[in-house]
Amino acid sequence: MHTIKRMKLLTAAAAGLLALTACQPGAPSAPPEATAPSQQPGTATTPEAPAKPAPSSPAAPSNAEPDSASVEAQLKDMLVLARKGQVKGSDFAAHTNLIDEVEKKWGKADQIDSAGKGLYATYKKHGITFGFNKGELIFDIRSYDPELHKLTLPAIEKTLGKPKETAKNGDDQIYVFQASEQFELKFVIPAATGKVDHISVFSPQDAKNNMAG
C-alpha cells in the first residue's frame, strides 16, 4: 500500500515538473508559418527614372524658297541666253534656226498647234515649245523647266528691274523684258500661283513676217 502511494506521488511530481518546464520563459516554441513576401524579389519600389526624351527627327524637306543668290544667278543666265535667242536645255535659237532643224535632231514634235501668229511645236520630253512662222523660221522658244516654277515677280524685278510692258492672257499675267535689240524675254505668271509657269524668248520681227526664212 505504501508502494502504491509512493508511485502516485512520483507520477504527480513528474507531471508538475513537466508543466513547470513548459511555462518557463525562453522555452522553444514551434516556429510560426513563414509569410509569403508581398512582392517578388527584385521588384523596384522606388519611382522609375524618367524616360529620356526621344531626339526630334529632322523636319521633312519642304518646298523652301530658293535663296536670293541662286535666283539672281539663274535669272542672269536666263538673260544671257535670251540675248542669243535661246533658253536653257536647247541649242536652237529664235531668228536663226528652222523648225526642220529641230525635227532632224529631236524628231517629230509631240503636238503642233496653231496659235497667235504661227504654229507651235511642243516637245514634252524637253519641256520646250517652238513657235515658227510659215517660212519655218523659229520666232518664239518657250521653256517649261520646273526650276522656273519657284520664281516670283519681286525676285525677277530685283535682278532684271521693271518690265518694259505687261500684258494679260486670260488669268495669266505676262511680264516683258527687253533682252536685246532683237529679243524679248517674257515671264508668264498665272494669278492662281503667283509664280512663273513658263518663259518665252521672242523675236517680234520674225513673228510679224510670216513668210520670213
Question: How is this structure best described in words?
Answer:
27% of the residues lie in helices and 22% in strands. With 213 residues, it is an alpha+beta fold. It has a domain at 68-208. Strands 1-2-3-4-8-7-6-5 form an 8-stranded antiparallel sheet. Helix 2 (68-82) crosses helix 4 (153-160). It starts with a helix and ends in a 5-residue tail after the last helix. 22% of the residues are buried. The model is unreliable at 17-23 and 25-62 (pLDDT under 50). InterPro entries: DUF4309.
Using brief descriptors, characterize the structure shown:
213 residues, alpha+beta, 8-stranded antiparallel β-sheet, 5 helices, 8 strands, 22% strand
Side-by-side strand order of the widest sheet: 1-2-3-4-8-7-6-5
Output the number of helix runs. 5
User: What is the beta-strand fraction?
Assistant: 15-25%
Order of helices and strands: HHHEEEEHEEEEH
Main beta sheet? 8 strands, antiparallel
Oligomer: single chain
Based on helices, strands and strand pairing, what is the structural class? alpha+beta
Question: What's the total number of strands?
Answer: 8
pLDDT < 50 stretches = 17-23, 25-62
* First-last Cα distance: 166 Å
Average pLDDT for all residues: 80
Name the overall outline.
globular
Helix coverage percent = 25-40%
What is the rounded Rg?
A: 49 Å
Biased composition (Low complexity): 23-49, 59-70
Organism: Paenibacillus elgii
Region (Disordered): 23-70
Keywords: Signal
Short description:
With 213 residues, the chain is an alpha+beta fold. The chain has 5 helices and 8 strands.
